[in-house]
Automatic annotation (TrEMBL):
The lineage of its organism: Bacteria, Bacillati, Bacillota, Clostridia, Eubacteriales. This is DUF4080 domain-containing protein. Coiled coil: none annotated. Residues 171-408 form the Radical SAM core domain. It comes from Desulfosporosinus fructosivorans. Keywords: Iron, Iron-sulfur, Metal-binding, S-adenosyl-L-methionine. GO terms for molecular function: 4 iron, 4 sulfur cluster binding; catalytic activity; cobalamin binding; metal ion binding. InterPro entries: BchE-like, Cobalamin-bd, Cobalamin-bd_sf, DUF4080, Elp3/MiaA/NifB-like_rSAM, Methyltransferase_Class_B, rSAM, rSAM_horseshoe.
Length: 582
């Protein structure tokens, strides 16, 4: 029996962990198993062609909110030309309301409900033996147009019963590789499907070590743990991170390895901070779901936390150069425009590396889906079931927040405008007010209707604040924006609005080359000794600023900066005029 497992990932770089578990579970008995990964950006006819030419007897699909539409279309397209193929689907998107799904899609033979490793193997054995499917627990199936719901499968209490998903010969260079050291979650968040499962199961750390070592040998450098709350058990989490550190340092390219963990902020303590202080820089990044700081909302969704208490750890982690992503959710019950504004400002002001603005997905099987009428949640009827409005947050307000989220990604999360934003935000009561006003300008001018290249984003930001009347404030914003412009890339020219006054412009042209040639740089940038003059000029830029952008306090001090561009990275160095040449 030839088995084909198909993943349609959200992006090309992603990998599908679930299907690798299935492959590991069945390949001892069914060695003729293939795994094919595509992305939702691939043409469906090309995907269908590759699936058809695989000539499989059983085709299994892993379904999520981002790919179920494409999978349904593929199965409908393949079914007429593959009349003898068994089509099997599974995954979180189809594990709820399964009977309705099969009634709407008679082309699907079997739907696997919940965890599928043991179920899928039993299903294949049953087909291979020519037996009736009624004894296979954990499935729903189509029997001559009638949908049969079999008894649910009892989950294994031991995560170590599962196979190693990464035994096959694969090249993970440039891919995002997913790992699982726990299943389940200690929380009961009503917007999340993890709330439908009780308890947390743990993978043996030493078993993880062997798996982690394998994927590093296969070129993996970016690893994301799918554990819903990685620090649910401190002892387990610390042991896993110990192994990450120990195994990573055995590889010559250790600097390129990074693991991404989703943690709960309210489980942090001083022991965690001490641990991070001793951890290698750049090896870990964290994602923390704040979701809201509005306490009535947090009570409704069963996710109580004290952001005011645990946010004190954010500066510590930032000082340790741990990339920190904080998440908010728009559209939760009882969160109106005013309280969401507060949540946004609360999180923005702790200055995470990324502030991810998500919009509530009213998922099948989730507590909020089951209570959607009670809370008046209006959501899209098709995947991904995005919130449209609530009794306290209108559809129009959600559209405004969607536009703000777009600009938040372009300007804040890109990290390309950090100095300019710091100055611009001083003109507004709160960060939320700036993004709201900026998004309104974009909408009025129709700018959201086009894709803008990076430099055009500078034009838009200047257009928003060019009316500032106070000269000193205007100059400081201009300096900060020009500083970011040089950090973006080495400019051949700069826009007129970022140019200095004529007198300063003339002065800069007469001294720029002299500053670039100063031997002062050899002490700061050792690479200069390996460059000839042409290479040095091509990889540097010099700019004059009326105030020191990096100066936190004090009066504005005019200064020069040299920007060094190398291998896609740029560093800025303040010129210290020890000879009084400038």
């Amino acid at each position: 029996m030839r088995v084909l497992l198909v993943a349609i990932n959200a992006k090309y770089v992603h990998t599908n962990l679930a299907l690798r578990y299935l492959r590991g579970e069945i390949n001892a008995i069914y060695p003729d198993v293939l795994l094919r990964e595509f992305s939702i950006n691939d043409r469906l006819d090309r995907i269908a062609g590759e699936i058809y030419e695989a000539k499989a007897d059983v085709i299994g699909f892993s379904c999520y909110i981002w790919n179920v539409k494409e999978i349904r279309a593929l199965i409908r397209q393949l079914h007429p030309v593959c009349p003898n193929v068994k089509f099997v689907i599974g995954g979180p998107e189809v594990s709820f309301e399964s009977e309705e799904f099969l009634l709407e899609h008679p082309e699907v033979d079997v739907l696997v409900i919940g965890e599928g490793e043991k179920t899928f193997l039993e299903l294949l054995n049953t087909w291979e033996g020519g037996e009736d499917l009624s004894q296979v627990s954990g499935i729903a199936w189509n029997k001559n147009g009638k949908i049969i719901m079999n008894s649910p499968r009892l989950e294994s209490s031991d995560l170590n019963d599962l196979p190693d998903p990464y035994t096959e010969d694969e090249d993970f260079t440039g891919r995002l590789v997913y790992f699982e050291t726990t299943r389940g979650c200690p929380y009961n968040c009503q917007y999340c499907l993890s709330s439908t499962f009780k308890g947390v199961r743990f993978l043996e750390p030493e078993r993880f070590r062997l798996m982690f070592r394998q994927i590093l040998k296969k070129g993996a450098t970016t690893i994301k743990f799918v554990d819903r709350t990685f620090n649910a058990n401190k002892a387990h989490a610390l042991k896993i991170l110990d192994i990450v550190r120990e195994e990573s340092k055995l590889f010559p390219d250790v600097q390129s390895i990074r693991v991404h963990c989703e943690m709960a902020g309210d489980l942090f303590d001083e022991e965690w901070m001490d641990y991070f202080r001793a951890y290698p820089r750049g090896l870990i990044q964290l994602e923390i779901g704040v979701q809201s700081t509005h306490k009535p909302t947090l009570r409704i969704v069963a996710r109580p936390q004290n952001f005011e208490e645990w946010k004190k750890y954010v500066p510590v982690m930032k000082a340790l150069e741990i990339p920190l992503h904080l998440d908010l959710i728009v559209g939760l019950p009882e969160e109106n425009w005013t309280t969401f504004r507060t949540s946004f400002n609360d999180v923005y002001r702790v200055k995470p590396d990324m502030l991810q603005l998500g919009f509530l997905k009213v998922l099948k099987g989730s507590g909020l889906r089951l209570q959607s009428n009670r809370y008046g949640l209006v959501y899209a009827p098709d995947p991904p079931y995005t919130i449209l409005e609530t009794p306290v947050l209108s559809h129009g307000e959600i559209l405004q927040l969607l536009r703000m989220e777009d600009l938040l990604d372009k300007y804040y999360n890109s990290g390309k405008f950090s100095h300019a934003l710091a100055e611009v935000l001083k003109l507004f009561p709160t960060p939320f007010d700036f993004y709201h006003g900026f998004a309104a300008l974009w909408n009025t001018n129709g700018w959201f209707q086009r894709q803008w290249q990076g430099k055009a984003l500078f034009d838009k930001l200047w257009g928003f604040i060019e009316g500032v009347q106070e000269v000193s404030i205007r100059e400081k914003i201009c300096d900060a924006l020009r500083f970011d412009y040089y950090l973006w890339e080495r400019p051949n020219t700069i826009p007129d609005y970022l140019r200095l006054a004529d007198s300063l412009e003339t002065a800069s042209k007469t001294t720029e080359d002299e500053i670039r040639r100063d031997g002062y740089w050899e002490t700061l940038i050792p690479e200069i000794k390996k460059m000839d003059r042409r290479q040095w000029n091509r990889n540097t830029a010099v700019a004059y600023f009326t105030s020191d952008v990096l100066q936190v306090e004090g009066l504005p001090v005019p200064c020069w900066y040299l920007f060094h561009y190398q291998q896609g990275k740029v560093k800025a160095y303040r010129y210290e005029d020890t000879s009084q040449k400038v």
